[in-house]
Design a protein that fits this description.
10 helices; RmlC-like_jellyroll; Jelly Rolls; about 290 residues; AraC-type DNA-binding protein; eight-stranded mixed β-sheet
Length: about 290
């Protein structure tokens, strides 16, 4: 049985939880209630924060970002994150479960079109331009009112406002998209990533995934190089490294146990793999992370 290395927060466990599958709050009072969430943890729900005031840092899957006013942070279930704020911090927070939109949207994969829901930490932080800042604040104020007033159809109005928010933020990256990508290739890449998420512990070679996708390894590699600018093998290795980091920061897990969970034949092979990918041994990474957090 695989041990979970971080506290996993369920949306129903939150003290101010009032409505099924959704929580909307100003960030300052939310932070005051949930000071314990400043330590590294995971959610089983989607977590959105829009900062309007404050400074410090937010770390998502071991990628550190400087917190600034008018920044969005999007996190999907399972990502590891923690805060390190400086002084007063405020804004808005929205937590919603995967079920919240299930009966509302016919497309089960609707959110997969938005890069900030990809699970890639570097795509999860978005700065809002000055021209949009007032509109974003107004939208969040509407979300708060609908959440608090509980008028007829309030939850559906919340869903509509959130979809409006996601589309508006998604458009921010549209002018920078240079490549015209076919729907087939996007679907193929999504299928590859989904297969990695399910099988990264046991399947570590591109040819194994290519076989499951009914394409050649060369086709899969060309796809990843074209859309992601990295090879298919690197996509797989990056996911293994991320999981290794998540496991390593749990002091209760030994290196040998972690190597076993990730299906490495022995501790030595795992150590060589990890050092080649990160520049640090597993023990060095563990010490560095614990030192940074203390």
């Amino acid at each position: 049985m695989i041990k979970d290395q971080f506290p996993v927060i369920n949306i129903g466990q939150l003290d101010e939880f009032k409505q099924e599958d959704i929580l909307i709050s100003r960030f300052a009072p939310y932070l005051a209630v949930h000071k314990n969430l400043q330590q590294a943890h995971k959610h089983d729900f989607y977590h959105l924060v829009f900062f309007t005031d404050g400074a410090g840092s937010q770390t998502i899957d071991f990628e550190r970002f400087e917190v600034k006013p008018f920044q969005f942070y999007f996190m999907i279930p399972g990502q590891v994150h923690h805060w390190a704020f400086e002084g007063h911090v405020d804004g808005y927070v929205v937590n919603f479960s995967g079920n919240f939109f299930q009966s509302f949207l016919l497309k089960a994969d609707y959110f997969e079109q938005f890069s900030f829901f990809s699970g890639n930490a570097n795509e999860a932080v978005i700065e809002v331009p000055v021209a949009m800042q007032a509109d974003m604040i107004n939208l969040f104020e509407k979300l708060l009112r609908e959440s608090e007033d509980k008028q007829r159809g309030a939850l559906d109005m919340v869903r509509l406002l959130l979809v409006e928010l996601f589309i508006s933020i998604g458009r921010l990256s549209a002018p920078n998209e240079q490549k015209q990508v076919s729907p087939y290739n996007l679907t193929l890449l999504k299928s590859f990533r989904n297969l990695i998420e399910t099988n990264f512990r046991s399947l570590k070679l591109p040819k194994e995934y290519a076989e499951l996708l009914y394409i050649t390894p060369n086709h899969l590699n060309a796809l990843c190089n074209d859309l992601l600018d990295i090879s298919a093998g690197e996509v797989i290795r990056n996911r293994v490294v991320l999981e290794a980091k998540r496991l390593l920061v749990n002091p209760e897990l030994g290196i040998t146990e972690i190597a076993g969970q990730l299906n490495f034949s022995d501790n030595s092979y795992f150590t060589k793999f990890f050092k080649k990918q990160t520049g640090s041994t597993p023990e060095e990474f563990r010490k560095q992370f614990i030192t940074k957090r203390s």
